[in-house]
Amino acid sequence: MKSKKKIVITGGLGYIGTELCKLYSKESRKSKIIVIDKRFLSERVNQLKKWNIAFYQGDILDKNYLKKILKNSDIVHHLAGITDVAYVKKESDPARDNNIKMVAIEGTKNVIRSVSKKCKIIFPSSHVIFEGFQRIRKNVTEKEKPCPFLAYSTGKLQNENDIIKSGNNFIILRLGSVYGYSSDSTRLSIMPNLFSKITSLNGTIKLFGGGKQLKSLVPLVDVARCFKFMADKIYIKNEIFNLTKDSTTVKDIALICKKNNSKVKLLSTKDETPNLGYTLSNKKLLSTGFKFMRNLEDSISEMINKWTTY
After folding, report:
1. Could you tell me which CATH class the domain 5-180+217-245 is placed in?
2. What are the tens digits of pLDDT across the range 263-290?
3. Maximum pairwise Cα distance, the chain
């Protein structure tokens, strides 16, 4: 009898991990699905049990523990890492930055060392590895040389390099800003999510520099779908893809919010912006046959309604 495929999701209680687990809940009878997370969030852990998904509380910095759990894995979605990070230099803190990089770099090395070469590692990198651009850039491809400078982005680029050099089977997905509602795991540090919540409260949306910055965005649901798509397509391997759908400005997102609720106020400010803006090309990703399901306007409308009734 053929053994079940073993699929592990590190950081499975997080924003993307929660959505990915929803997809895998339909496959828990034919595959062995395991979640590893440093935290224990009882409501989410109970939901995993209902879905027949195994949960292990553990730290990716614990080499021996990780090696035991990841042994004989077929797929590892490596989502674990620190996401509460600085987006501009003035928000940086040396101690926090060192911890961000340490967890990212050492944790990812531990994952690489804990799996066989046949195991497919699917890893979320980020569009912020291009945060050092000094001018507006559009449709940046996977061939563009990264230029990170903050702790989070430099850690992501180091992760990419370590995974590529490892000789493991891999897929690296360079995510745009991931937006979408996911109950208490929704990240409010992400601009469309924050703007949607402010809108639900009839508040004021601040547009740094007038909101002219370009952004590459991607719906949460489609991010989870793409991770599973890459896991299912065994012939797609050792590739980097930009995972992004929407290219728009900060102001345009605020205007979508205003369209949903005329009571929300838009206020232009002169605050520091992380960069002048850039967008990523998704042409390579679309060539694989992957299709997006969600759109920005509908997602923002949904989030505003969810926050209003939350």
Report:
1. alpha beta
2. 999 999 877 665 678 999 999 999 999 9
3. 65
Q: Residue 225 to residues 62, 145, 293: CA-CA distances in angstroms?
A: 29, 27, 9
Find where tokens 């990089």 sit: 101
**pTM given for the model:** 0.93
Q: What is the DSSP string of 197-247?
A: HHHHTT-EEEEEGGG--EEEEEEHHHHHHHHHHHHH-TT--SEEEEE--EE
The whole-angstrom separation of Cα 4 and Cα 28 is 10
CA distances from 79 to 34, 129, 140 (A): 13, 17, 24
Q: What is the pLDDT of residues 10-55, one digit of tens each?
A: 999 999 999 999 999 988 778 999 999 999 989 999 999 999 999 9
d(Cα 227, Cα 271) in Å, to the nearest integer? 35
Measured distance CA(144)–CA(128) in Å, rounded: 13
Structure tokens at 219: 């719906």
* Contact between residue 79 and residue 10 where contact means Cβ atoms under 8 Å apart: yes
CB 193 within 8 A of CB 186: yes
Q: What are the structural domain ranges in the chain?
A: 5-180+217-245
Residue matched to tokens 């803190």: 93
- Helix H or strand E encompassing 29: none
Q: How far apart are CA 192 and CA 153, in angstroms?
A: 20
